[in-house]
Amino acid sequence: MEAQKSVVDSLNDLLKENCDAKRGYRKAAEQLDDPSLKGLFMNLSEQRDNFKKIIREEILSLGGTPQAFRQVDGPIQDAFTQPHLLLVLNTIEKTLSGCLRLEVNALQELKKKLAQYEVKESTHQVLTGQLENIRLTLLDLRALATESEATLNF
Q1: CB–CB of 55/11 below 8 Å?
Q2: Is-above-0.90 flag for pTM?
Q3: By C-alpha distance, which of 93, 107, 1 is closest to 55?
Q4: How many of the other CB atoms lie within 10 Å of CB of 22?
Q5: 95 and 77 in contact (C-beta within 8 Å)?
Q6: What class is the 2-153 domain?
Q7: What stretches of 32-120 show up as alpha helix (H) in DSSP?
Q8: Is there a contact between 73 and 20 (Cβ–Cβ < 8 Å)?
Q9: pLDDT per residue rounded down to tens, the chain (154 residues)
Q10: 98: how many CB neighbours lie within 10 A of its CB?
């Protein structure tokens, strides 16, 4: 029973991190004028909102109670608190890349932590799916950075 509580607590931590990411990416989108970057950040915000829903369902399936987070200030939201930092595409890419790496690291740490316990297959799939989605986004971002560098050097 203690193991189950630890798994639920860990998933609630992940839920909190996704709340932070959702708000941070939305805040960034609201501060940008470039339609493609605004769209990217809005998509990331919506993706994290979907992650939250999946995690809540998983917590409930484990018999736990998902925590409610009305206002969460975390590292991702903090990264976008200064609008002047988002004026240069290179800075946006670096900031976003850093945020995504934070998320990858957090998910990897969570997976390590949960490896101590026997978790349901669905819990494992939730974590693996979110990690893969974030990694794919990071790859897309790297491609965008390479493309914008090539355009600037042309």
Answers
A1: yes
A2: no
A3: 107
A4: 23
A5: no
A6: mainly alpha
A7: 35-61, 75-79, 89-114
A8: yes
A9: 677 888 899 899 888 888 888 888 888 888 877 787 788 889 989 999 999 999 999 999 999 999 887 666 666 666 666 655 555 556 677 777 777 777 777 778 777 777 777 788 888 888 888 888 888 887 877 777 677 666 555 4
A10: 13
End-to-end CA gap in the chain: 61
CB 40 within 8 A of CB 17: no
What Rg, from alpha-carbon coordinates, does the chain have?
Answer: 17
66: left (phi over 0), alpha (psi -120 to 50) or beta: beta
Lookup result for tokens 């914008």: 148
Q: How far is CA 84 from CA 89, 102, 114, in A?
A: 12, 22, 39
How many residues does the structure list for the chain? 154
Rounded CA gap, 146 and 154, in Å? 12
